[in-house]
Every structure is written in structure tokens, then in C-alpha cells.
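JOB MANIFEST
job_type = single_chain_structure
chain_count = 1
residues = 241
[input]
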Amino acid sequence: MKPKKIPLPSKAKFVSAFIGISLLSLPIQSDITNAQSSPPAMQTGLQFQESKEFNVGAVTTLSVTETDLVDSGKCVGQFYLPSLQTRTRTYEEQVAGKAAFISHSTLPAPGLRVTIRNVTSGLDRDPYPYTDREYDKPPMSEGFKVDFDIQHRGSFLAVRPGNNDFSYEIKRDDTIIEIGTFTARINRQNQSITRNENFSGNISSTANALCQQQLNNFPMQPPYRLNELQIPRDILRKLGH
């Protein structure tokens, strides 16, 4: 669907024509500058961060393997006997895509806003997933995040994997300047990463002091683990408990 412009009053048409004639006398350099700040010819839609293709973006699913060291040591008399063990866990994180909107026929200008709705079949319709953004500064609209979902969710624009159909509406206050549609493809990317959380810090003196304190209070107690004591949480975190 081609963008639709709201007709201008006759007086405005006269002014527009006058401006058009005046532009013919501007230096060629102005045209080059405008071309550099404009999207490719006849392009309307979304430019995604780190994407070389217009209206093509991605949402990334990270498979994270996290490995760290846990100290399950114990007090033996007045001394702390450490026992370091490796703990591994795996989980997934979803990293939203980042995008901005641009219309080839109505470039950003002061006072403009754009509302983008995802009208793809299979998504919630009450309301359609949408985002409302400032469209008042070149070269594009205010940025926003794109994530997989079937319903409107906060500041995110919900999408589904594959082709998505969008409608948009550019307004100045309550006046509609332009309406139109476009299609964008959202790919699902899978990545695997490993995070190593190393056990760090010299805790031997602190642990030994706690062991000595416990020995003074309960001299006949057998060996015990530090997490069985009434120890401040910040100390336990340092010890890996």
C-alpha cells in the first residue's frame, strides 16, 4: 500500500508550489546533503541496528552456560578448611532487536510522531501490538526494541518470526500527515556463550576469625559448615554460600 498524504488546502498548495520553484535555484550541494540523510529511494519501514538490509532484523536467543566456584568448606578447630567445587548451570536469555522507523515521503520534522502497529495474522488485535515514537529529528524516529510476543507489551514492539505486516500513522498533534503499510522480516538467531564466574578475594583471614569466634563460644562443637552459623549475608556471599 502506498503512503497516503492528507490533501493540503488550496492556499497551502500555492505556497507549496512557490517553495518548489524556489528550490530549483538552490545549489546542487543541497541535493547531495539531503540524499545522504534520506533513506534509499522508495523505502519505508524499519532500519535495524547492525543490519545491512532495510526491513530485515533479528531477535537473538542466547544459550548461556555459567560456571562458577562454590566454597563449601568448614571450620576445623580455629581454622577454616576451604572446599571449592565447580557449579554449572544452563539457561536462555532473549536479546531484543533495536530498530527505528523512516518514511521516504515524510521525513522527520519538528512536532511529528509515528505510531506503528503490527497487524500480522495470529497476533492479538485488541489492541494490535504497537509503539508510539517521536518522529521529530533526522534521520529517523526515536529508537525502540523489538521482541517476540503475540500481544502488546510495554515499550516493546511485539513481532513473530518471519514476515510481519505493519501499518503506520504519522501525525502532528491530532492531524494525520501520512498513513501507509510495509512488511519487515524478523529472523531468529541462536547463539551460545559461556560465562565464568571465578571465585575471587582473599577470605582466609575473615573465615579463620569466624571459626575462632565460634570455637570460643562453643568449644565442644564438632566441625561445622559456615552456612550453619549466624553469619552476615555479605560475608556468606563472599564465601560463595
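[summary]
The first strand starts at residue 4 and ends at 5.
The first helix runs from residue 10 to 23.
exit_status = 0
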